Amino acid sequence: MTDQAKSMAHDLGYLPVTTDRVGKMCTLVGGQMTNYLIRFAYADGQALWVGSAEEVNSCVTTTNGTVVSNSYIGPSITAAYHTGTWTLLPPKDPCDPATGRRGQDEQMVPDGAIKVLVCRDKQSGSATPHPSDGLEHGQQQARELAAELNSLKAEPGGNTCRETGDGRREMFLLHFGYAEGPPAWVRILSRCRPSVNNGVLVGDLNDALLDRVSRLAPPA
Q1: Coil, strand or helix: which one is 75?
Q2: How far apart are CA 116 and CA 136, in angstroms?
Q3: What is the pLDDT of residues 13-69, one digit of tens each?
Q4: β-strand 184-189 against 192-193: which pairing, if any?
Q5: CB distance 172 to 119 below 8 Å
């Protein structure tokens, strides 16, 4: 794909990456896995290799051998392989986590957000949480919320959860939009430790922040 290389490199360059080993929970459904190697060629004769895969659990990583991204892009690579055209496919539900954004290994929410979509988990009775439609808020709310999340003590970690306390557990998904590039997402789970994660970093929120997020989300 000669005319698609810059577009593909641009999108992959926005994936959040880490050099830390980040564990995460994955389903264990059996099925076919298709492994991919992507070779980016440069004018000076050098090349960069990127490895990824498509598989039924959506849980493989993408790596260039130096850094790793937990963002799942398998279907996008498969589509490019079959069509010769690169498009980073969005999630089917706008409230579901997307690929995330470069810089999320350094901050829970990278600087510069201009809006935020706040989604509350829909209590459907299904074993798999399914977020409802969200409410979108403007730049002031987005940057205030991002600042509060960035003030939390964060460390490398994935989407693990150790349940704590009693009562109903709530899940919120926050999507911070930017003037350019993909959104950054943050998942919040009450009665969990850690209770906040962005796929690369984890932290614990306080009651005041949980209350603020709840007020910004659609009604329960």
Answers
A1: helix
A2: 6
A3: 999 998 876 666 676 777 889 999 999 999 999 999 999 999 988 889 999 999 999
A4: unpaired
A5: yes
Amino acid at 70: N
Strands (E), 18-114: 33-41, 47-55, 62-63, 68-69
83-132 residue pLDDT tens: 999 999 988 888 888 899 999 999 999 999 999 999 998 654 454 555 56
- Provide the 3-class DSSP secondary structure of residue 11: helix
d(CA 81, CA 84): 6
Cβ atoms of 187 and 171 closer than 8 Å: yes
Quickly count: other Cβ atoms within 10 Å of residue 142's Cβ: 24
Instruction: State the pTM of this model.
Output: 0.87
Which own/partner pairs from 71-75 qualify as long-range (CB within 8 Å, at least 24 positions apart)? 71/15, 71/16, 71/99, 71/100, 71/199, 72/99, 73/12, 73/15, 73/99, 74/34, 74/36
Q: Please check whether residue 116 is in contact with residue 137, taking contact to mean a CB–CB distance below 8 angstroms.
A: yes
146 φ, ψ (degrees, to nearest 5): -60, -40
What is the 3-class SS of 176-189, one letter each residue?
Answer: EECCCCCCEEEEEE
Query: What's the token pair of residue 15?
Result: 């994936």
Residue with tokens 């929120």: 205
Query: Bridge-partner residues for 160, per DSSP?
Result: none
∠174-131-157 over CA atoms, to 5°?
50
